[in-house]
Write a structure and sequence with these properties.
With 555 residues, the protein is an all-alpha fold. It contains 31 helices and three strands. Helix content is 72%, strand content 3%. The longest helix has 30 residues. It is elongated and about 130 Å long. InterPro entries: TPR-like_helical_dom_sf (IPR011990).
Length: 555
């Protein structure tokens, strides 16, 4: 009976395998059976998933904190990062890097600041402050205005078009580097067909008006000024007056500004421009009146007083000029900027005595003496006192002031001019080469030195300087214009076609230069200039379009 009970209820043995997730047993019929413990398997998988999630969060935490320098990262945020918070986290990290980059700038760590700003803007492209500062880095420090402009343009689609300060900075950079077509593209894209007089639209319209004015598209510039009521603003009046002036209608330009005086009675730019325009036309009494009016409205300002000095100098009123310089020396001797402006006037007019007085005042007041010393040398050069310029230069060399090392290139450029002036080209060439070898010379410095050589009829030396300047700053229209003028003077034909073609791609060139180029290219001296006929046709077309300005040039 016992045997029967054992037969009906056989004892089976279970054997766990695969870490206990599967059980192996022998069935009644002697066959091996395998069954999965689903509850245990699901529980283990859930435990692994949770453990992996926390481990991944920990790994991300350490990755962002130490590898990505994101100190504000938190472990709890990393738990919720995947899969839905990645983009928000990326922007948050970008904003953090931009904030850190701005802090590094304040501490003077510009290399780290640039790296952090680049990372930050890449991750948070809508951070306009980061874009603005990064663009300044590219423009000023790295001399890559193309990248700076691209950064600012990309920011417009990230909300920058609605930020008036950001828009103004973008337009300033584009105007500064002759990117006028991009400004017109922005106007076409963002300005409505029917003008809406919002601050954003008016700002963009004024930028487009400026760009078109600089390209010689006067009618289109006027359309923007009138359509957006920009003539109600001082800037609009000044631009409209400049358009009239450049069109050859000087009386209309002055009339527009005179009508605006009652609306902007104490505006220094308006009154000073009226004074300068009248001075250029020879209306000395009117020029003096506006300069005096500006001085009455702000007697502590040196600008109108300096304008009066230029007026007295041009009209040959030596007595008043001397009397006014004495007054300014007394009144502004403790104002370094005003005193330096007076020294600039002395250098421009070759007034060596006045330049020396400003230099002595600067010494007595312990100002930064470098500018005053260099301006004194310039005054000697303008006065054609080359021996005096070299003598003062030797005095400075004996004293060896601290500033001389930093200004060594400019100092040598002045010595070079003086040396050529006394017919010592051997010394002049040495000094000139020292100036050219300086990599940090600014475009305006090249222009000033080249013009000094031109004034003493040393055109080869002027061309040498301008060629170096053009190679270093090929987008600078003033340098290119001066280089073309130098090539025309010397009769060089080798590069003239390329230089003129490049100039015609830029903003509206000076009519006087185009007239000179057209006349000289038509002569036998330039008969072998490459593409001569094509250039003559282009120049002729431009001059016909600007016939009114051409009449002014000829007169």
């Amino acid at each position: 009976m016992s045997k029967k009970r054992n037969t009906r209820n056989p004892i089976t043995r279970e054997k766990p395998i695969l870490l206990g997730f599967v059980v192996q047993r022998k069935g009644i019929d002697g066959r091996m059976e395998i069954s999965v413990r689903w509850g245990r398997l699901v529980g283990a998988f859930a435990l692994l998933l949770i453990t992996g999630w926390f481990a991944m969060a920990g790994a991300l935490y350490f990755h962002f904190k130490y590898n990505k320098e994101f100190d504000q990262v938190s472990y709890t945020k990393m738990l919720t990062l995947l899969p839905f918070g990645i983009e928000d986290h990326r922007v948050e990290m970008g904003n953090y890097h931009i904030e850190k980059g701005l802090e590094e700038i304040k501490q003077g760590n510009y290399r780290d600041a640039l790296r952090l700003l680049r990372l930050g803007v890449a991750r948070a492209p809508a951070n306009l402050e980061g874009r603005r500062v990064l663009a300044e880095f590219y423009e000023v420090a790295l001399k890559r205005h193309d990248i700076a402009a691209d950064q600012l343009l990309k920011g417009l689609s990230q909300g920058g078009i609605d930020d008036i300060d950001y828009l103004k900075q973008t337009l300033r950079v584009l105007l500064r580097y002759q990117m006028d077509e991009q400004i017109q593209e922005l106007a076409d894209e963002y300005l409505p067909e029917q003008p809406e007089l919002t601050d954003i639209n008016r700002t963009l319209a004024f930028g487009a008006a400026n760009a078109n004015y600089l390209r010689g598209n006067y009618d289109r510039a006027d359309d923007y000024l009138s359509s957006y009521n920009l003539l109600e603003s001082l800037e609009g009046v000044l631009l409209s007056s400049q358009i009239s002036w450049d069109r050859g209608n000087q009386e209309a330009a002055i009339s527009k500004m005179e009508d605006a005086v009652s609306t902007f009675p104490n505006s220094e730019p308006l009154l000073m421009q009226l004074s300068r325009y009248n001075r250029e036309l020879g209306n000395i009494d009117a020029a003096r009146r506006y300069a005096i009016l500006r001085n009455v409205s702000d007697p502590l300002s040196s600008a109108p007083r300096l304008e009066l000095l230029y007026i007295y100098n041009k009209s040959g009123d030596t007595e008043r000029e001397q009397r006014e310089t004495q007054r300014m020396l007394q009144q502004f001797s403790e104002d370094e900027a005003a005193l330096q402006a007076l020294a600039n006037f002395a250098a421009d007019t070759g007034n060596v005595d006045l330049a020396r007085r400003t230099y002595e005042e600067a010494l007595e007041n312990e100002y930064n003496i470098d500018a005053f010393a260099l301006l004194l040398i310039e005054a000697h050069l303008v006065d054609k006192d080359y021996e005096g310029a070299l003598e003062f230069s030797e005095e400075l060399l004996k004293e060896r002031p601290d500033w001389l090392t930093a200004r060594w290139a400019i100092f040598n450029s002045l010595r070079a001019v003086a040396s050529y002036g006394i017919n010592r080209p051997d010394l002049g060439e040495i000094y000139l080469q020292d100036f050219i070898d300086e990599a940090n010379n600014q475009p305006q410095t090249y222009l000033a030195v080249a013009r000094r050589f031109t004034k003493i009829d040393r055109h080869q030396q002027a061309r040498k300087i301008l060629m170096v300047a053009y190679q270093r700053t090929p987008t600078n229209q003033k340098i290119l214009s001066e280089l073309i003028r130098s090539e025309l003077t010397l009769g060089n034909t080798e590069n003239l076609n390329r230089l003129l073609a490049r100039l015609l791609e830029m903003r509206r060139p000076q009519m006087e230069l185009l007239v000179e180029a057209y006349q000289k290219l038509g002569s036998d001296r330039f008969i072998f200039t490459p593409d001569r006929e094509s250039l003559l046709l282009q120049l002729s077309s431009i001059l016909r379009e600007n016939a009114q300005s051409l009449v002014e040039v000829k007169s």
